[in-house]
Structure formats: C-alpha cells, structure tokens
User: Which sequence fits this backbone?
C-alpha cells in the first residue's frame, strides 16, 4: 500500500477495515507501521477501537427476555391460514387449467400413443420377437429425455459423497436426473429464479427412508443418505435462457457449487 | 443431532408444521429486541415492535423466497418496522437527559455514563444511518449481509457506514467520551 498516494478518507477507510478484521495480516502490518509514524491517525484508530469496545460491552448486556408466548398469542395459530404453496402441485394445477395446455397435451399424448401402437405393429410386421432391450425402461425412461438437448452433466466426487446431475432441456421443460450417494447425511440444493421456473415434478426413483426431497418456490433440497435417484422436472415459464445453481453441503458447509445454463 | 438451518424450518412452517416457527423466534428474538431497543430508545416500544416483526414474518412467510437467507429477510422486516416507527415518532421523545461523562466518579459510573452517551449519540443519528451501525456492530453482519438485509448496494453501505461512524466519533469527542483514555 502506498499511503502517500492515498487520501485521508481512504486511509480512514483502511483503518476501519483493519479494526473490523477485514484486512490480511500483511495489510494489517502495513497499517500498523503507518500508524506508528502518524500519531493523528493512531489517535483516530484508538478512538474508534474504544467505541467498538463499548459496543461489545453493550452486546454483553443485551436484554434477554422470552417474548415467545406473547408472539404466539398474537399470531393465534388456530385461525392461521396456510399460505399458498408456491411449488409443486398447485403450480401443476394452474398449469393444467389453461385450455391450450390441455389441448396441447391431449394432442401430444395422441401422437405418442399413435407412435407406440405403430412401433408395436412395426415389430410384428418384421416378425421379430420383442427383445428385452426394446422393452427396457420405466415410465420415466419412455419420456423424451433422450431427445432433449444436453445442458451439462455435473459430477462431484469425494471419498464420502458422489453426485451426478444430468441436465437436459427442451424449449419448455428442464429435466434433471440426480444420482446421489453418500455414507452420511449430505444436503444438495438446486436453485433457480421462481420468476423463470415452476417445479413440475420431483420423482423419487429409488429413495430410501432416510432421504427426501423438499420442494419450494425457487429451490429443491435433497437430504441424502445412501444411494438415491431422483428425476426433477422444471417448467421454463418464458422459454428464455436461465441458470440453475447446484450446491452440495456436508455438515452444513458448502463443498460444491456449479451452475448450468439451459435454453442456451 | 443435525440442527436444521433456518430455511429448512421456514419450509416446515410453510408446509403446515407451524409450531416450528417457535424455533425461529428462539433464534432471533434476542438480537431483534436489542436492535429495536437501540433503534427506538424505549424498552416497551421495542418489545411491541419485536412482536410485530415476528407476527409479520409469520403472516408473510408464504411468500418467502428461498434464494435468500431467513436472517436477512427477518432483519429487513425489523429494519422497516424500526425506520417506519422512528419516522412517525422522533427519537428524542424517548430519551432521558444523559449527563456528559463523569470522569471524576467511580469506574462503574463512568462506564454507565459512557454507555448512555454512546446510546444518545446513536439516537441522534438519522435512522437510515443508525440502522447500518446497529446491523454492523450489534447484529454482527458483514457488509454483504447488510446489503442482503437492506437491499442497499455494498458500495453505498460502506460509504454510509463511513459517514455514520464519523458522525458518531465526532459526537462522542465533543461530549468527552475519550477523556481519561
């Protein structure tokens, strides 16, 4: 730091930052050296330190009374009206209430069923036996995931936890296949802007009793122990490009953070 | 036992386990009450405002945005409540007279006088500045956390805090706060 080039305001700013513990050890030493040669600044530093000490003393004298009962009485939980749930089912319902969506879905379903019937006949026309390969998959596998565009495949691995987030998208739908395993409790969050996405579905594909997925307006949180698989579907409200954040926490400390862009 | 983080508790409340709200009261009532005491200068008013904060938080919880942290959300409600109140009722009504620091008395008296003087100088400040000092030094928030709680950009938080601290220091100097130190 070149103190000669700094204004008085900048030097005071540095002193505040030093007293607030925001400087590195090297920066702190430089300021201390400066203060030893500048008694006016040193006096300022001492004064603010005294103010801070007084504030700390006040914190120790904080009033500690329990207002819980009074607050709960005022809230009157018996008459409490559940706030509208933003994610999941309600959004799916509002989605379905649109005639265009219902018509569109019926049309797509019709085409899908038609293709299925055609495929079955096609197999018979050939006279082939339907192999297990051709019959593979669950309801989820039969969806259009394979035809969606690949946004990214995020992978995280350490000795205690492993996670894969396979993110694909179409114009309207984002599908995230989560494959997560850990020996102990870990938490993973998938965050997005609720102005951009609705949560359509969170499917527990193979999920044990100790693990769960929580859904909120702009967040899906997976609490995981063991090996689990989830399929998450988001509805892109405006067909635009958006980012989705993926985080993993171990013992409440973040160990992984990455972001995926969809509708690139 | 894993302690649930605030947002998990909020999620539980929103999804029907409303008794979980007590956990949030336990976690934040002390800090908010003491911030209120220093904002409004009167214990009974601070108590009422603190209750208002939690009642409002409970009522608005359905609209909680999980991208943010609960503490910044509830501090924001608290800050708004306190500032609205101070705009309606000037602070000075609730402050008794505080004598300048008695440097000749015992240490306890001097300490008490210093404490009163600090409170008085804080209360002299504009509420918008005072709240930043309280969030920084009484609630222990970082600049970024203050930004989250007040929606004031970090740069502005830094510059306003700079002004607030200078006001506070100069006010204390003129009242003999640093004499004998």
Assistant:
């Amino acid at each position: 730091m070149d103190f000669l080039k700094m204004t008085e305001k900048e030097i005071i700013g540095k002193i505040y930052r030093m007293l607030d513990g925001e400087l590195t050890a090297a920066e702190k030493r430089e300021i201390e050296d400066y203060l030893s040669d500048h008694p006016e600044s040193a006096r300022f530093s001492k004064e603010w330190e005294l103010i801070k000490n007084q504030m700390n003393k006040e914190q120790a004298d904080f009033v500690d009374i329990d207002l819980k009962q009074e607050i709960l009485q005022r809230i009157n939980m018996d008459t409490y009206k559940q706030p509208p749930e933003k994610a999941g089912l309600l959004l799916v319902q509002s989605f379905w209430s649109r005639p265009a969506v219902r018509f569109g879905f019926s049309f797509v379903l019709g085409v899908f069923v038609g293709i299925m019937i055609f495929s079955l006949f096609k197999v018979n026309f050939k006279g082939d036996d339907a192999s297990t390969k051709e019959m593979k998959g669950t309801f989820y596998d039969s969806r259009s995931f394979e035809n969606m565009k690949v946004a990214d495949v995020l992978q995280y691995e350490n000795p205690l936890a492993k996670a894969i987030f396979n993110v694909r998208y179409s114009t309207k739908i984002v599908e995230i296949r989560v494959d997560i395993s850990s020996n102990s409790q870990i938490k993973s969050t998938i965050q997005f802007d609720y102005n951009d996405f609705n949560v359509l579905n969170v499917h527990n594909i193979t999920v044990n009793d100790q693990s769960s997925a929580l859904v909120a307006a702009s967040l899906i949180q997976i609490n995981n122990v063991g090996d689990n698989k989830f399929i998450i579907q988001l509805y892109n409200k405006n067909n635009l490009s958006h980012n989705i954040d993926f985080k993993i926490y171990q013992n409440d400390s973040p160990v992984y953070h990455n972001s995926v862009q969809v509708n690139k | 036992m894993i302690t649930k983080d605030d947002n998990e508790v909020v999620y539980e409340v929103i999804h029907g386990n409303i008794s979980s709200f007590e956990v949030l009261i336990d976690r934040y009532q002390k800090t908010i009450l003491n911030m209120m005491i220093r904002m409004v200068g009167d214990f009974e008013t601070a108590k009422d405002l603190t209750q208002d904060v939690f009642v409002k938080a409970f009522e608005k919880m359905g609209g909680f945005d999980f991208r943010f942290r609960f503490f910044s959300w509830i501090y924001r409600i608290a800050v708004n409540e306190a500032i609205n109140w101070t705009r309606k009722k000037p602070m000075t009504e609730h402050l008794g007279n505080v004598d300048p620091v008695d440097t000749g008395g015992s240490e306890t008296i001097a300490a008490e006088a210093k404490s009163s003087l600090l409170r008085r100088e804080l209360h002299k400040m504009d509420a918008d500045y005072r709240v930043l000092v309280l969030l920084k030094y009484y609630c222990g928030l970082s600049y970024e956390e203050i930004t989250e709680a007040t929606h004031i950009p970090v740069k502005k938080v830094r510059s306003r805090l700079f002004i607030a601290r200078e006001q506070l220091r100069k006010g204390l100097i003129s009242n003999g706060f640093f004499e004998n130190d």
The longest helix of chain B spans residues 154-174. The radius of gyration of chain B is 18 Å. Chain B has two domains: 1-91, 95-181.
